[in-house]
Amino acid sequence: MGDDSFLIVSNSKNRTEAIGREVGAVLSVGDVVLLYGEMGAGKTCMARGIAIGADSEVSARSPTFIIVAEYPGRVRVFHCDLYRIAGAAEVIDLALEESLDRGALVVEWPENAEGALPEDALEIRIEPDHSSEQRSISMSPTGPKSRSLLDAIARRLPAAVKA
To answer: What are the angstrom distances between the C-alpha of 101 and each of 75, 77, 78, 82, 159?
Structure first.
């Protein structure tokens, strides 16, 4: 993690979703959030919280079989699950960047995109402690827009610590 990273600990699914709600509450059109973590780490729980925080009326669920789900709200959230995607060409075909002029993009399994996602993104890494419900959640910006998003999140999450 770099100097601009923040780390917060979650002890439950409810807390992970609550952290996501704080992210969603400050999300704006053009923001990109990339969710990293192993199967079962809590990516979909975080995405659901983000959608709720953006005042979506639809609770996010894993869109594994539909790839992209769209949730209208204060900010339209495009929730994308790339688990079944096999490389950059398939991601390019989804035209995800076109959604950024209409809303924000939240992507699970971004590592499967092989560099075909926007460069300026807030990377959220969820690391479970396999002996408990605890998760370490780190947030790192990769450019100026995501740095502004992280600054806004950090103001809302007083429990976050600068890494």
So the answer is: 11, 11, 11, 21, 32
The string of pLDDT tens digits covering residues 33-56 is 999 999 989 998 999 999 999 998
Residue 95 dihedral angles phi and psi, to the nearest 5°? 50, 45
| CA pair distance 10, 19, nearest whole angstrom | 8
Q: Are the C-beta atoms of 117 and 87 separated by less than 8 Å?
A: no
Global pTM exceeds 0.85: yes
CB 21 within 8 A of CB 52: yes
- How far is Cα 107 from Cα 76, in angstroms, rounded to an integer? 14
Residue 149 CB-density burial (10 A; 0-12 exposed, 13-18 middle, 19+ buried): buried
